[in-house]
Specification:
alpha+beta; 2 domains; 5-stranded antiparallel sheet; 3-stranded antiparallel sheet; 12 helices
């Protein structure tokens, strides 16, 4: 957990091109606003909770009074599949008064975890993320359990309406995705993945692309670039070392790929987010 709190806005929640290595959960209490996602515009209304997954570029629009609770959570670098990869989650769900009361209680208990400002540049940066992570890791175990329990409880509302993605029904793709996640920091070849799936390389590419909506190579690179963004915010290592740790033998190729996927170079990403 990075941040949790309550915010009240007066036509001042208007931020463009926001993308972060953490997932945002909102619970709206008053007013109305909009979130623009890559494939749709969502109107935020009272009595509903909303999810914006990590690494999804989005924008906010607020033209009047608007109030919401918010929770920011991130997944540490783990060699396992993410729930966000395995399920199609709803963007919006209905909530009840007990959910609102639980959110209010958590915000009151952890007042120090509130955002310094609604401007993403004030908190979506190296110093702020590092401070939030350090604050969480220093919490006593019972507080960590309380926060994890609350986050899981809120996520469970979304999981209830989530749909398993096509690939989770094919044991061959499950084995391939598991291998990719377990060896994301190593060189991974298509021949190796085809052998794991017990099919030919050409059929693997067709099968994987149909199930995942992208080729195996693109999926591997996407996962590595996601890890890279989190590492740039949280670790004091060179871009060259980062490339090698993510399975790239050529750090120049890593830089080109990062620019292609994120829009700027790793150095620019790090500088923009407050770490030189």
């Amino acid at each position: 957990m990075l941040n949790v709190g309550f915010a009240r806005h007066h036509a001042d929640w208007n931020w463009q091109g926001v993308s972060s290595p953490f997932t945002r959960l909102f619970l709206v209490t008053d007013g109305e606003a909009k979130v623009y996602l890559p494939d749709k515009a969502v109107t935020l209304l009272p009595g509903h909770a909303y999810m914006v997954p990590a690494y999804v570029t989005h924008s906010y629009e607020c033209r009047g009074d608007f109030a919401l609770y918010y929770l920011h959570v991130y997944e540490e670098f783990k060699n396992e599949a993410s729930l966000l990869d395995a399920y199609d989650f709803p963007t919006e769900i209905e909530i009840d008064e007990l959910d609102r009361m639980a959110f209010a209680s958590i915000c009151h208990t952890f007042e120090g975890a509130a955002l310094p400002s609604s401007d993403p540049q004030s908190y979506d940066n190296t110093e702020s993320v590092a401070d939030s992570m350090e604050r969480y890791h220093k919490l006593p175990l019972h507080d960590k359990m309380l926060l994890r329990g609350f986050a899981l409880s809120l996520f469970s509302r979304f999981v209830r309406y989530a749909q398993p993605r096509v690939w989770t029904e094919d044991e061959r793709i499950i084995r391939v995705v598991s291998h990719i996640n377990e060896h994301i920091a190593e060189a991974i070849t298509l021949d190796e993945l085809a052998s794991i799936a017990c099919i030919t390389k050409s059929y693997l590419i067709r099968l994987f692309t149909h199930a995942m909506g992208m080729s195996p190579v693109r999926f591997i690179n996407r996962k590595r670039m996601e890890h890279a963004q989190l590492m740039l915010l949280t670790e004091k290592i060179s871009v060259k070392e980062m490339a090698y740790r993510l399975g790239f033998s050529d750090h120049s190729y890593f830089i080109r790929l990062f620019r292609q996927c994120v829009g700027i170079s790793p150095q620019e990403y790090r500088k923009r987010n407050g770490r030189n």
